[in-house]
């Protein structure tokens, strides 16, 4: 029995020594170790208190993995969406030992949902992200911000004010101008629809008849399955269906409008445009565009050249949710970006 234990001890020492000599192996061995973390009790979940102009609320976060050098905060779409749009990341980031944090913004399903439109401004959301960053102790040695769709707007706005806190920025499937996005939907994507379908959609929108079941049916059948997620509706992942089920319509309609076919109605984001400010961004930036996206991939390519240290990732099979319908390009591109920035190779390869 003593000999057996001694053998195990020697084997443990050998394995531990190997980890010490190989940082990647040590990182992988430590990746799912919660023992030194203050969120072990909740499995990585933290409700983070935030201050707003109308009072204090709590937002939901969940940290996955341990990596002191790469921590990715995920900003979901909507507005009023949830972290559930990102659940496919579970299939790719852990095997690369990338730490990532799910986060439901204020007003979203797992966070507090106050009913006050004064809260739904990009400026306030930026300050919310900054409070979350501080609570999670993220800084420019490890903090990467990934925003998809509306989350891309929020990520860009955050970087314009707080890029000194970032190590890297990822803008996924979002243009830098709402008017340009609307123009692309109207002049490029719309005319690709069957003429009768496009005319019906425009008639519904002209009459502001957004709640008409026929309007929703047309969008899902002819537009969403082509440009939001390129799968038949009955094949959509459960996490996506859950995310849509949990969408807060009050926040969504107030800021984005009642449709994904452009930013419509009286939505507050309708005139949002930061194209003239992008050249001030110096943080390493990855802009992701997809062939079938609701967003113009050429605009995303332009963003990557307009910022001072940019890279473009093109997803030839993807739409707005490329994290699901073009995973073979989306995830390798993001993972390579994170590793290149972390290793100091970003400028050499971009």
From TrEMBL:
Q: Where is the active site?
A: 149 (nucleophile), 293, 320 (proton donor)
Say if the entry is tagged with keyword Hydrolase: yes
What Pfam families does UniProt report for this protein, alphabetically?
Abhydrolase_1
Q: Name one GO biological process term.
A: proteolysis
What are the record keywords, sorted? Answer: Hydrolase
- InterPro entries, per database record: AB_hydrolase_1 (IPR000073), AB_hydrolase_fold (IPR029058), AB_hydrolase_sf (IPR050266), Peptidase_S33 (IPR002410), Pro_imino_pep (IPR005945)
Which positions fall inside the AB hydrolase-1 domain? 72-326
Q: Give a Gene Ontology cellular component term annotated to this protein.
A: membrane
GO molecular function terms attached to this record: peptidase activity
Q: Which residues form a coiled coil?
A: none
Q: Where are the transmembrane segments?
A: none
Asked if the record carries the keyword Cell membrane, the reply is no
Q: Which family does it belong to?
A: Belongs to the peptidase S33 family.
The protein's name in its UniProt record? Alpha/beta fold hydrolase
Organism, by scientific name, is Flavobacterium nackdongense
């Amino acid at each position: 029995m003593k000999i057996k234990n001694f053998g195990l001890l020697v084997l443990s020492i050998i394995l531990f020594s190997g980890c010490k000599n190989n940082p990647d192996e040590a990182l992988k061995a430590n990746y799912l170790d919660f023992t030194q973390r203050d969120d072990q009790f909740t499995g990585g979940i933290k409700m983070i208190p935030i201050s707003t102009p109308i009072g204090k609320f709590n937002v939901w976060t969940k940290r996955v993995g341990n990596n002191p050098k790469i921590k990715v905060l995920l900003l979901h779409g909507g507005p009023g969406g949830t972290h559930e749009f990102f659940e496919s990341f579970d299939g790719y980031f852990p095997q690369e030992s990338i730490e990532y944090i799910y986060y439901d913004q204020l007003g979203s399903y797992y966070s507090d949902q106050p009913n006050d439109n004064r809260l739904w401004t990009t400026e306030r959301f930026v300050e919310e992200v900054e409070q979350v960053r501080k609570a999670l102790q993220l800084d420019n040695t490890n903090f990467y911000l990934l925003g998809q769709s509306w989350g891309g707007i929020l990520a860009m706005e955050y970087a314009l004010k707080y890029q000194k806190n970032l190590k890297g920025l990822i803008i996924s499937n979002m243009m830098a101008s709402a008017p340009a996005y609307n123009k692309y939907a109207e002049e490029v994507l719309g005319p690709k629809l069957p003429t009768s379908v496009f005319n019906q959609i425009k008639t519904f929108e002209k009459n502001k008849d957004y709640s008409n079941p026929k309007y929703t049916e047309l969008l899902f059948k002819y537009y969403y399955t082509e440009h939001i997620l390129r799968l038949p509706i009955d094949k959509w992942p459960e996490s996506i269906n859950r995310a849509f089920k949990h969408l807060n319509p009050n926040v969504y309609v107030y800021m984005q409008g009642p449709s994904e076919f452009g930013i419509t109605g009286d939505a507050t984001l309708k005139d949002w445009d930061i194209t003239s400010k992008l050249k001030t961004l110096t943080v390493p930036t990855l802009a992701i565009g997809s062939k079938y996206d609701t967003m113009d991939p050429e605009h995303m390519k332009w963003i990557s050249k307009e910022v001072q240290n940019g890279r473009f990732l093109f997803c030839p099979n993807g739409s707005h949710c490329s994290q699901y319908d073009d995973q073979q390009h989306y995830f390798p591109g993001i993972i390579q970006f994170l590793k290149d920035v972390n290793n100091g190779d970003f400028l050499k390869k971009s």
